[in-house]
């Protein structure tokens, strides 16, 4: 009887400690608009939506496997947006030892295994009617297009694909979700 109670308590402790080992499911993200302060920014990922009323500012977001999109607009009509890629938190690998495969799966599913950059800069472009003629000048803002957006390194892509494969093997995501997310990752290289 004592052995059964001990095993039950140990199991309960192991399951509840998983996400806390990798620092929880939320994190603070600061956003600035270097060319012009005072923009309102909307942040979103697969776990939710958040707003920063005025830049520079910060908010707490729920961590997720997918990208965090940041779209900002200033009162004068200037706009800009970017996406930042989550990376696997270093503590997630330690969780495999402490919490095993179940702990790692819980952290991947909850987002606790991932982390976004703590600071994001969004370049604002002037409204369509206010674009300077004669090409870009040295002081003009740049708009980041998908072609110029930061790309995933081979190592980051491999790590994300490996994490995704583990989720599929544990039946935490469907085959269709696996294919879609794999395409997203490969498209970011």
TrEMBL record:
Q: Where is the signal peptide?
A: 1-19
Task: State the superkingdom.
Answer: Bacteria
What keywords sit in the KW lines?
Answer: Signal
Does the record carry Signal as a key word? Answer: yes
Q: Where is the region Disordered?
A: 133-154
Designated name of the protein: SHOCT domain-containing protein
Protein's organism: Azospirillum lipoferum
Query: Which lineage do the record's taxonomy fields give for this organism?
Result: Bacteria, Pseudomonadati, Pseudomonadota, Alphaproteobacteria, Rhodospirillales
């Amino acid at each position: 009887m004592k052995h059964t109670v001990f095993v039950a308590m140990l199991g309960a402790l192991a399951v509840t400690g998983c996400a806390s080992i990798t620092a929880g499911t939320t994190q603070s993200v600061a956003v600035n608009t270097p060319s012009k302060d005072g923009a309102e920014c909307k942040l979103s990922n697969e776990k939710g939506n958040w707003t920063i009323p005025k830049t520079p500012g910060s908010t707490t977001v729920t961590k997720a496997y997918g990208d965090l999109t940041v779209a900002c607009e200033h009162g004068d009509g200037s706009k800009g947006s970017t996406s930042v890629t989550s990376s696997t938190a270093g503590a997630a690998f330690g969780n495999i030892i402490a919490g095993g495969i179940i702990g790692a799966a819980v952290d991947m599913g909850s987002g606790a295994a991932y982390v976004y950059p703590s600071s994001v800069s969004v370049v604002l472009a002037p409204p369509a009617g206010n674009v300077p003629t004669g090409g870009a000048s040295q002081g003009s803002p740049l708009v980041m297009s998908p072609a110029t957006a930061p790309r995933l390194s081979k190592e980051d892509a491999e790590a994300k694909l490996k994490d995704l494969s583990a989720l599929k093997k544990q039946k935490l995501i469907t085959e269709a979700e696996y294919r879609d997310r794999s395409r997203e990752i490969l498209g970011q290289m």
